[in-house]
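TASK: fixed-backbone design
INPUT:
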């Protein structure tokens, strides 16, 4: 049998069981993942007897009996059919398109509803989160960073809330990038109401995601839960502004617990919206000190990959070519049209400073780059 077809067939067989198990009282995402890991298949777990179920961490005799009773009234294929009825696509961990980083969580969502089109998960996803009442300073830097990440080929992930979330989504879209909104409602419910146009636009340049069924209204307890998905989808979380006890800090703490990178925008100590970020920095989060240094920390290339490809496909000369020396090629990939400092170049390329300095000098002499005051460099026009 063809390996791809075999894999797809197994996924199709498993899909109904993810949905059925999620309807069993007492089986949340944590226990569901343990069942999958213990039995290797949720179908086999569904067919297991009470004694076998009790071998799974967190399942004792009482819960095993409850599972047995629930299975008498649940038919996985019928649960699948009912879930398909609203016509809204969804992913389970059995599906090949399920986000791989999300499966690494101890409690991955068993179902993820999708409105729009998810990007390829090969693209780096970066979360931008923050307060619902940002200052002009927070809005400015959220716009700048959201656009820069989009131009660097990242997927910008946020929660579609008022304030920083909305600014981040909008900046990414305006830069031509893809964005994902993870919501604490059904994907078909617009919350807050003023984000209806943004909700529609995201579906054309990304997707709305939720673990809650279509039609689910907003509820206070949903939003901390959805924050784990934001943190889990992304290799890094950026907190732009957040007062003490902000929901954005929950996302940051979760990201840190998952072993992902966390960055925070420093602000005025007299500004309430900056205090959560300052506390994150005090406890080890990276500082956002500008676009160049942030992209270098994230090991991202500044500038739009699309624009670079367009430039290389037309015209002639150095603007369409690239250096042949390996060290020069590496620097060429990091350099963009915006100036970048030598420290950021050293971090991004991992070159020894002597090698970096001599390579920069040769590229300047050959006309590949321009040196600016303060030992900053950019590609030659």
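OUTPUT:
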């Amino acid at each position: 049998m063809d390996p791809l077809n075999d894999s797809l067939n197994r996924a199709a067989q498993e899909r109904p069981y993810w949905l059925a198990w999620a309807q069993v009282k007492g089986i949340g995402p944590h226990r569901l993942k343990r069942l999958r890991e213990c039995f290797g298949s949720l179908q086999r777990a569904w067919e297991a007897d009470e004694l076998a179920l009790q071998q799974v961490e967190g399942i004792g005799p009482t819960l095993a009996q409850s599972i047995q009773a629930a299975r008498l009234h649940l038919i996985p294929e019928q649960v699948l059919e009912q879930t398909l009825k609203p016509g809204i696509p969804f992913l389970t961990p059995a599906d090949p398109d399920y986000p791989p980083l999300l499966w690494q969580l101890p409690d991955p969502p068993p179902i993820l509803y999708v409105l729009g089109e998810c990007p390829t998960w090969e693209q780096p996803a970066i979360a931008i989160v923050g307060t619902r009442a940002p200052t002009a300073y927070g809005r400015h830097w959220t716009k700048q960073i959201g656009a820069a990440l989009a131009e660097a080929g990242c997927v910008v992930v946020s929660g579609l809330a008022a304030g920083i979330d909305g600014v981040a989504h909008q900046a990414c879209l305006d830069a031509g990038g893809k964005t994902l909104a993870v919501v604490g409602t059904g994907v078909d419910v617009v919350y807050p109401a003023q984000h209806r146009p943004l909700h529609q636009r995201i579906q054309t340049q990304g997707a709305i995601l939720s673990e809650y069924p279509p039609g689910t209204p907003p509820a206070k307890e949903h939003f901390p839960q959805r924050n784990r998905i934001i943190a889990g989808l992304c290799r890094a979380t950026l907190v732009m502004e957040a007062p003490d006890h902000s929901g954005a800090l929950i996302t940051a703490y979760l990201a840190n617990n998952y072993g992902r990178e966390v960055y925070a925008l420093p602000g005025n100590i007299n500004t309430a919206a900056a205090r959560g970020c300052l506390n994150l920095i005090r406890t080890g989060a990276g500082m956002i000190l500008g676009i160049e240094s942030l992209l270098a920390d994230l090991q991202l290339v500044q500038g739009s990959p699309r624009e670079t490809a367009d430039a290389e496909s037309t015209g002639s000369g150095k603007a369409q070519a690239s250096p042949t020396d390996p060290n020069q090629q590496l620097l060429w990939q990091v350099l963009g049209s915006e100036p970048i400092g030598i420290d950021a170049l050293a971090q991004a390329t991992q070159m020894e400073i002597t090698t970096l300095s001599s390579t920069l000098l040769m590229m300047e002499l050959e006309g590949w780059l321009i040196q600016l005051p303060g030992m900053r460099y950019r590609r030659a026009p």
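COMMENT: DSSP finds 18 helices and twelve strands in the chain.
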